[in-house]
Write a structure and sequence with these properties.
single chain; about 425 residues; mainly alpha; 19 helices
Length: about 425
């Protein structure tokens, strides 16, 4: 019982790891606000915002699975350090582009591709490290703490980024680059992750081990595919510069507030989950919050008032956080440690598809039918997806207690040899 009640912050590496996540999150979110405004200012074309998302997504299907395999074969700390160094180089590149005038969109697409490479390489190692930083008895609390600090970074990052951008465009990237250097130093100070996580073979069958596990585990497949399709059609973040400039008329500072609003709701939700976690009816709760999330997107798309848009985004962020915590609790509970990097890589492909590829879908839809109809239609589709998943994945809908889930190592081994 002692471990169950202890705080994850008592563990040095976990606390240091949270600091790395905060610094990286602040740097990325600050830069996203500036990039969105600068790219849209060049040609006032919402499709360019979608192309930024596409450039970030392309490395994921190419690199994520090999990176997940590397995270199970080589020191995860080293892999995370390399990814953080790439992020630092991207921030310095954005600073150089801005100093040169930022009169073309292609340099932003190239640097967005660099961010996608860093995410593809570093995310599987980062996510796989978390369960090893604390005792298993407090893993759920540790995941909730991680969600809280990440969302806190997302709250302050856009707001700070918008304010710094209003003062001086270059200042955003200078501060972001500094934070990236701090994150790199934090990674190198970690004691955990110095040794290889496993001794899997370098052949294709081993690389695809995570894919096989996900494919043969309906609860896991249903949970992460739900995020893919729901956010793919229900994402509105990529179009926030359009709404800030052309619908709500609130400028770059207002754009920062709009980007921060989902994180405010997500943080409140995460804090509540650390005190009152979902105990019963986990599957039903997951599907319900995704449907309600779609409803908030519809409200945001129809809103003409800043206050209502902020409320809709905040509530949507809170609902999405419940979904995130439920899904990220399912993954380590059903995944054996020797496959954790590869399964996390599979999940990252789904997550990035729902975010970056979703940004491209949003930009394309806005270019074809307009920003408001695109967002409203996306919210309606998200509601339909949540309802449909109750039939496509009944095992997910019927999940009751998360603590009843167990690793499926035997099933993974059978799939690998079958």
């Amino acid at each position: 019982m002692g471990d169950a009640r202890s705080s994850p912050l008592r563990y040095r590496d976990f606390t240091l790891f949270l600091g790395v996540m905060v610094a990286t999150g602040l740097a990325v979110e600050m830069s996203f606000v500036a990039i969105g405004w600068q790219v849209y200012a060049v040609r006032s074309n919402p499709l360019d915002l979608g192309l930024v998302g596409l450039a970030m997504f392309i490395p994921l299907p190419l690199l994520a699975l090999p990176a997940g395999h590397l995270a199970d074969r080589f020191p995860r700390r080293t892999i995370l350090a390399v990814a953080t160094a790439v992020d630092t180089a991207v921030m310095l590149g954005l600073l150089a582009v801005t100093r040169a005038g930022a009169s073309h969109t292609w340099p932003f697409f190239v640097l967005a591709f660099g961010t996608g490479v860093a995410s593809a390489v570093g995310a599987p190692a980062s996510r796989a490290m978390t369960p090893s930083l604390v005792p298993k008895s407090i893993l759920v609390r540790a995941l909730a703490f991680r969600s809280v600090v990440l969302q806190a970074a997302v709250i302050f990052g856009p707001a700070i980024g918008g304010l710094l951008f209003a003062v001086h465009q270059e200042l955003v990237y200078a501060v972001a680059a500094t934070l990236s250097f701090v994150a790199l130093a934090g990674v190198l100070l970690l004691h955990s992750g110095k040794e290889p996580a496993g001794d899997s073979s370098p052949d294709l069958a081993s690389v695809l081990g995570g894919v096989r596990l996900v494919k043969t585990t309906p609860v896991l497949l249903g949970a992460i595919s739900l995020d893919l399709f729901a956010v793919l059609f229900g994402g509105a973040v990529a179009l926030l510069p359009v709404f800030a400039k052309d619908v709500l008329h609130v400028g770059p500072a207002g754009l920062g507030l709009l980007r921060a609003a989902p994180a405010v709701g997500a943080t409140v939700s995460a804090v509540i989950l650390t005190r009152r976690p979902v105990v019963r009816h986990a599957g039903r709760t997951l599907l319900t919050v995704v449907a309600l999330y779609g409803a908030t997107i519809v409200v945001f798309g129809l809103s003409k008032w800043m206050w209502l848009s902020l409320v809709a985004l905040a509530i949507g962020g809170g609902l999405d956080m419940v979904s995130v915590v439920l899904r990220q609790t399912i993954l380590p509970l059903v995944t054996p440690d020797e496959l954790r990097g590869r399964v996390n890589a599979v999940e990252m492909v789904f997550i990035s598809a729902s975010n970056e590829l979703g940004a491209f879908e949003s930009g394309l839809a806005a270019a074809l039918v307009g920003a408001v109809p695109a967002v409203v239609l996306g919210g309606v589709v998200t509601i339909a997806i949540a309802v449909g998943w109750t039939r496509f994945f009944p095992a997910l809908a019927h999940v009751d207690r998360l603590d009843e889930l167990r690793p499926v190592a035997a099933r993974a081994e059978a799939a690998a040899t079958g």
